[in-house]
């Protein structure tokens, strides 16, 4: 992880602030923030996301239940785990989070000693974990990403956190029965249409025809399997496309148009609601070598 650039946003509402960093050549991102009034819209990431609450209380819903993370607690989200987020009281909260692509997780586990890793990609059944050792490892990794650190040290800390998180907190069994097979088939067919045609102004009847079910059955199945309404999932695909265009250096207005948003303000509004940062901050966070 040699090429990266960070960004800082200060002076927000009620003393809100954030620092953000992402790697140019690997799917790794990190953020350190204080939020009071900001509310995350329900969303998910393509990555594993590991966070530590530094101070205060943050609340969120994930996998059909409400959760609270207080100082020292670790949050663990699987790829495509829908969740939201907000302050648990008027004092707000401070937290740090690292997003790690599944391919990096697989690579780190493949490099671990034989017999010490679980087969396949890990699954974190509990979104909040009390584990001071894991929390400390995440803080050290996070500090190396946002602050000057040798590239080799960052790589070592990244691998160590992945292996530690899997050994200490992961499971292959989510511990709860999933949707019936029929619902999975319906949802997958609808998702395939959304993935191929997310730029289009699709309607419920189009998804129903592709899934071979009524529009109401599609909605219920999609929510049960993916945790989001089809319209939210389509918006999320557009946001991910916008991120790719921004990372490639395209202007915000152009990225908005290419990703299917009405205009730049529409993209910005949803970008902040979902990711907590502006498209401009995301775009400016790459392309330079970190000074040491």
Tell me about this structure:
This protein has 292 residues and is an alpha+beta fold. It folds into 2 domains: 4-169, Jelly Rolls (Sandwich); 181-284, Homeodomain-like (Arc Repressor Mutant, subunit A), CATH 1.10.10. The protein is built from 10 helices and 10 strands. It is globular. The two termini are 13 Å apart. Mean pLDDT is 88; it is low at 113-118 and 287-292. GO terms for molecular function: DNA-binding transcription factor activity; sequence-specific DNA binding. This is AraC-type DNA-binding protein. Residues 188-285 form the HTH araC/xylS-type domain. It comes from Thermostaphylospora chromogena.
Set down the secondary structure blueprint:
Layout: E1 4-9, E2 17-23, E3 28-35, E4 40-43, E5 48-62, E6 65-70, E7 74-77, E8 83-87, E9 93-100, H1 102-110, E10 128-129, H2 132-146, H3 151-169, H4 181-197, H5 204-211, H6 215-226, H7 230-247, H8 252-258, H9 264-275, H10 279-284
Antiparallel strand pairs: 1-2, 2-3, 3-9, 4-8, 5-6, 5-7, 5-8, 5-9, 7-10
Helix pairs in contact: 1-3, 2-3, 4-5, 4-6, 4-7, 5-6, 7-8, 8-9
Keywords: Activator, DNA-binding, Transcription, Transcription regulation
InterPro entries: AraC-bd, AraC_XylS_family_regulators, Homeodomain-like_sf, HTH-like, HTH_AraC, HTH_AraC-typ_CS
Pfam family, one: AraC_binding
């Amino acid at each position: 992880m040699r090429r990266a650039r960070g960004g800082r946003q200060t002076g927000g509402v009620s003393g809100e602030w954030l620092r953000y960093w992402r790697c140019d050549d690997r799917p790794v991102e990190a953020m350190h923030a204080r939020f009071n009034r900001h509310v995350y819209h329900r969303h998910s990431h393509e990555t594993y996301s590991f966070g530590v609450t530094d101070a205060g209380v943050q609340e969120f819903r994930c996998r059909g239940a409400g959760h609270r993370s207080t100082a020292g607690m670790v949050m663990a989200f699987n790829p495509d785990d829908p969740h939201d987020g907000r302050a648990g009281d008027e004092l707000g909260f401070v937290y740090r989070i690292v997003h790690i692509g599944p391919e990096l997780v697989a690579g780190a586990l493949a490099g671990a000693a034989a017999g010490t890793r679980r087969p396949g990609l890990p699954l974190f059944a509990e979104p909040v974990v009390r584990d001071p050792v894991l929390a400390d490892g995440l803080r050290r990794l996070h500090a190396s990403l946002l602050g000057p650190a040798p590239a080799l040290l960052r790589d070592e800390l990244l691998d160590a956190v992945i292996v530690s998180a899997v050994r200490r907190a992961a499971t292959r069994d989510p511990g709860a029965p999933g949707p019936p097979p029929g619902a999975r088939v319906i949802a997958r067919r609808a998702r395939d249409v959304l993935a191929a045609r997310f730029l289009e102004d699709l309607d419920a009847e189009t998804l129903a025809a592709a899934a071979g079910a009524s529009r109401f059955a599609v909605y219920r199945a999609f929510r049960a399997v993916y945790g989001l309404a089809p319209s939210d999932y389509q918006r999320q695909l557009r946001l991910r496309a916008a991120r790719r265009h921004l990372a490639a250096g395209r202007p915000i207005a152009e990225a908005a148009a290419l990703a299917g948003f009405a205009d730049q303000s529409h993209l910005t509004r949803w970008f902040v609601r979902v990711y907590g940062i502006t498209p401009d901050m995301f775009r400016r966070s790459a392309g330079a070598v970190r000074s040491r």
